[in-house]
Write a structure and sequence with these properties.
Strand content: 5-15%
Distance between the termini: 75 Å
Number of helices: 43
Largest sheet: 6 strands, parallel
Number of strands: 13
Shape: globular
Structural class: alpha/beta
Helix content: 55-70%
């Protein structure tokens, strides 16, 4: 361009095509940093050619013009582009001192562009690229290069986090639409923004979304692409962002999703873009949409997303200019006239134009006019009115050509139609055993070179989107890792197959999926594989298979969904497979029973406990009707029903069932199945604890713990779980020193063995925090419980029973620490959630409301507190009996409410009755018995009965001193004559 350096910057007109938006933004920023006034002008390669006089006037404006040359600028060999080439040849030599150029393409410059003296910005790094840009306008860098947070990213630096598919190098047109979408998304401010790109199949919605992400990628720090053809795929894809940025490694997808949403909501910069591609299921996908300052782009045929704040933009077929330009780029030997005729015959639909032009390009000897004449309709076809005749002719021609040219590649294409078209299982096929495939496919699939060549052939001829990646363990070898087929094209192929052919390919597809089953759905290292398998179960025909290996695969997929907390999808899958299996198998078939057990577990996970109980009882009924009166299947059925009964708060029934199952296990299994026998005894111990029989429960947990240490080792997951259960019972028995010692050691082992974010670890930390609280180490307890609550929310979701349990305990800890407003809000929220999830009269919902009565008393709302305390006490007694520890604790809080309103006589009567019931139920030395004595002593003192009051107080203090120590915080609290209270503490469901 110009020789010499300027003492002051001139204005610059920066001209670029839309595809180079990222470069134009960065170049404009670089110039602006040096004080240049920059006028950025988007140029469309499809725009009408201006006359020479207008061009000279434009280039003659004050300052200088800088052209950004990309692939569009450099296509000077056909039609309108040849006219632009003529402009460069005629005008540029006369304006050489005013016009400069930079090139951002890796292609060699044609002769018409060489005269511009363009310098390349690709592959030189930001510092050198900046120097070259400034040199083109006669400037020197004023300071070392430094990208400030507000500046655009250097275009060759991808966003910090991104999984966007590859850009289509042949993408054409859509300039105005993409720019309008950008303006809307960019204008969201602190509330963020959402855009819906909608249109019929085949118009290129996904391609346009990819182009948007690539074109404007320099504006974002995070771009995340979520395949959203199904709810399950969308949830898995969105949750994967949590793992990518290190937010959570928990088991439950819900927790990971909420962790991502929370992080995006809190992000102050808002430099993120989330793309949901193919999002047709509004109800399933809408809960995933993040809030915050960032941006969301959806592609779908469904226009209902406007109800969720998405501004809709319709993506029509190409206009004729775009169709012609695209077809000529796809098949360079076509003339513009022929491209126009092709576009007219195909209704300007991008997908079919692409496939048709690909066929022409792949057959250089083909007669193009003859091909075009064949596309002209000869009449209507009533069998498939939704697919134009010309489109079907293109597809048929493509398939016939592929079958003749490469039969094995054609057969591979047919096999691919038996998988989900949204993400064809390239890796799964690559890992298939030769014995799982027909002989004509075994070679192409298992030989890497043949495999990639076959997939690339399919991609080129059928316009499938293809992605590459470096093979694991290889630094230089890249291979095809994903392929996407258009649904309408897949449907066309499947409709052309005979039933016999369909059965053969379905069986092969199912064998491929079976071979890819890692077999351990509970192991985190296998979750990605199961997520990859799930979308292919239906299209492969696996759901209708009677093959035993396929059925085991389906059961493993169900178990994966359970482990991941995807109970709704798991329930739907179990219903589907049971509907099929029960028609072809005996009711007591192993797979049928396993699926039935999983159905009950899914219902429990969904909080649909009544339905779960019906399923559990039906399994027992089936086994009884079949004469099964012993064995593992019967034990599993009893175990499942017991879990449902415990979740429903029917602890007496659960205990009876578990006692029976534990004895049956000992009698039937003996020493051969000790781990299973110990699990039944663990469940019995849990039921005893929920009944309030803490001594019996703790003893049994200790016995199982010691057996597991000897049998499985001290660091086995089941052993660690037993250690946690034992420590919890010790705490509830008031044996704090033992409880804290065991729980501290248990937490240490869990952190090292299971992981700090594992559910068991977090529940153990919660119990340790409760031990610390009872030892008056309140700040450490608060920090630990707050952290375990936060991480449990990330792992399981805000409404999970584990989170509700910890939230209620955290609320009561905050109450002790004096944070009454937060404590009350959190307690009331937990109580409402328990009522909604478990029912208003479930013991957990009742106990949570009793805790809320204490917060009302704290705030001076004595009458309301009394009403809630009396009501919850009556309800708890009705639900689990008057002598249960929870009913006795509620009664003690009720005496506090009665005393607060001045009804000391009734407080004394209720307290004395509760103490009379507590001693045989809990023992005279239990901490609750001691607190009931202390509370009764306070009421007696207020009533003037000091002698009896003093005797009760001495006994209570002696009891607490013996168990906790004379100087323990709880002993000092009692000695101060402060009112004793009881916190309801739920146990894990």
């Amino acid at each position: 361009m110009t020789v010499g350096r300027l003492t002051y910057p001139l204005p610059v007109s920066l001209v670029h095509a839309g595809v180079s938006n990222g470069w134009a933004q960065w170049i404009g920023w670089v110039l602006g940093q040096e004080g240049c006034a920059v006028d950025t002008i988007r140029w469309s390669p499809l725009s009408r050619l201006p006359d020479m006089e207008s061009l000279e006037a434009f280039f003659g404006r004050p300052g200088r013009v800088l052209l950004v040359l990309d692939d569009w600028y450099l296509r000077f060999d056909t039609g309108r582009n040849q006219e632009w080439a003529g402009v460069l040849r005629e005008v540029m030599p006369r304006l050489h001192d005013r016009v400069g150029a930079v090139t951002v393409t890796t292609r060699a410059l044609p002769d018409e562009a060489v005269s511009l003296g363009a310098v390349t910005l690709r592959g030189v790094g930001p510092e050198e690229a900046r120097r070259r840009v400034l040199a083109e306008v006669g400037l020197l860098p004023g300071a070392p290069y430094s990208r400030r947070d507000e500046g655009p990213r250097y275009p060759e630096d991808p966003p910090d986090v991104s999984n966007t598919p590859r850009r289509n190098p042949r993408f054409t047109g859509r300039e105005d639409l993409l720019n309008e979408m950008h303006d809307v998304l960019d204008s969201g401010g602190e509330h963020g923004s959402r855009v819906l790109l909608h249109g019929p199949p085949g118009v290129g919605k996904s391609q346009a979304a990819v182009e948007y992400a690539r074109r404007f990628g320099s504006e974002y720090d995070l771009i995340w692409w979520v395949p959203a053809a199904t709810k399950a795929a969308a949830r898995e894809g969105f949750a994967a962002l949590a793992r990518e940025v290190g937010l959570s490694e928990g088991d439950q997808l819900t927790g990971q999703i909420e962790a991502v949403q929370g992080a995006l909501r809190r992000d102050e910069k808002g430099r993120w873009l989330i793309i949901f591609d193919g999002a047709e299921d509004l109800d399933g996908i809408a809960p995933l949409l993040p809030e915050g300052r960032g941006q969301v782009l959806l592609t779908a045929q469904n226009t209902g997303w406007s109800r969720y704040g998405a501004k809709p933009y319709a993506l029509p077929p190409f206009d004729r200019t775009e169709s012609v330009a695209f077809a000529c780029r796809r098949a360079p030997r076509m003339t513009e006239a022929q491209a126009g005729e092709l576009a007219d015959a195909l209704g300007d639909l991008p997908l079919v134009i692409d496939q048709s032009a690909a066929w022409i390009d792949a057959h250089p000897a083909a007669d193009i006019p003859r091909y075009l004449r064949a596309l002209r309709p000869t009449g209507s076809d009533p069998e498939a009115p939704e697919v134009p005749v010309a489109h079907r002719q293109v597809w048929a021609q493509t398939l016939d050509s592929l079958a003749a040219r490469s039969p094995s590649v054609y057969q591979l294409l047919l096999l691919l139609t038996f998988f989900s078209p949204d993400m064809l299982p390239v890796r799964l096929l690559r890992s298939a055993r030769p014995s799982d495939l027909p002989s004509h496919l075994a070679g192409p699939v298992t030989e890497p070179g043949s495999w990639d060549a076959a997939l690339l052939t399919i991609s080129e001829l059928t316009s499938m989107r293809v992605e590459f990646a470096t093979e694991a363990g290889q630094d230089t070898t890249t291979s095809v890792v994903s392929l996407r087929m258009h649904r309408s094209f897949r449907r066309f192929i499947r409709d052309s197959l005979t039933p016999e052919t369909e059965r053969g390919y379905a069986a092969t597809a199912a064998r491929v999926l079976v071979a890819s089953d890692p077999g351990e759905p509970g192991s985190p290292r296998n979750w990605h594989r199961y997520a990859e398998i799930l979308p292919h179960l239906e299209p492969s025909g696996a759901l209708d298979s009677d093959d035993g290996d396929v059925r085991q695969l389906l059961l493993n997929c169900v178990d994966y969904l359970r482990v991941r907390g995807e109970y709704q999808d798991g329930y739907a899958l179990t219903r589907r497979v049971l509907g099929r299996w029960r028609r072809t198998s005996e009711p007591t078939d192993r797979a049928v029973l396993a699926a039935s057990h999983q159905q009950a577990r899914m219902l429990r996970g969904l909080g649909r406990y009544r339905e779960a109980e019906r399923v559990d009882r039906s399994i027992l009924g089936l086994l009884s009707g079949a004469g099964v009166d012993s064995g593992l299947e019967l034990l599993r059925a009893k175990d499942g029903l017991g879990a449902t009964l415990m979740a429903r708060g029917r602890y007496d029934e659960a205990r009876a069932l578990y006692e029976e199952a534990a004895q049956n296990a000992t009698d039937w299994l003996g020493d051969r199945y000790v781990p299973q026998t110990l699990q039944f005894r663990t469940n019995l111990a849990l039921a005893l604890g929920l009944q309030g029989h803490y001594e019996q429960s703790g003893k049994l947990h200790r016995e199982v713990y010691e057996r597991r240490v000897g049998l499985l080792g001290g660091r086995a997951r089941r052993t660690l779980q037993s250690g946690y259960y034992t420590a919890r019972m010790l705490r509830l028995l008031g044996r704090l020193r033992e409880a804290r010692s065991l729980q501290s050691y248990n937490v240490h082992l869990m952190r090292r063995t299971l992981d700090e974010a594992h559910r068991q670890t977090l529940l153990a930390e919660h119990n340790l925090a409760l031990c610390l609280r009872r030892d008056a180490e309140f700040e450490e307890a608060r920090e630990m419980m707050r952290d375990s609550r936060r991480r449990l929310k990330e792992v399981s979701g805000a409404d999970h029973p584990d989170v509700l349990m910890v939230s209620l305990d955290y609320a009561m800890l905050l109450r002790v620490l004096g944070d009454r407003p937060k404590a009350r809000g959190l307690a009331e929220s937990a109580a409402a959630s328990y009522a909604q999830r478990l029912g208003d009269l479930h013991p957990y919902a009742i106990g949570a409301r009793n805790n809320c009565a204490l917060t009302l008393l704290d705030d001076g709302e004595a009458e309301d507190g009394l009403r809630l305390a009396e009501e919850s006490t009556r309800q708890m007694e009705a639900a689990i009996g008057r002598d249960h520890v929870w009913a006795l604790g509620c009664a003690m809080n009720c005496t506090a409410a009665l005393a607060a309103v001045g009804d000391l006589e009734q407080a004394e009567r209720l307290g004395r009755d509760a103490l009379r019931r507590a001693i045989p139920a809990m023992g005279s030395a239990h901490v609750l018995s001691a607190n009931l004595r202390a509370a009764l002593a306070l009421d007696l003192r207020a009533l003037g009965r000091r002698e009896e009051s003093a005797a009760l107080e001495r006994l209570a203090l002696n009891t607490l001193s013996a168990s906790h120590g004379a100087n323990h915080d709880q002993t000092r609290y009692m000695r101060s004559h402060a009112r004793p209270y009881w916190d309801f503490e739920p146990q894990p469901i």
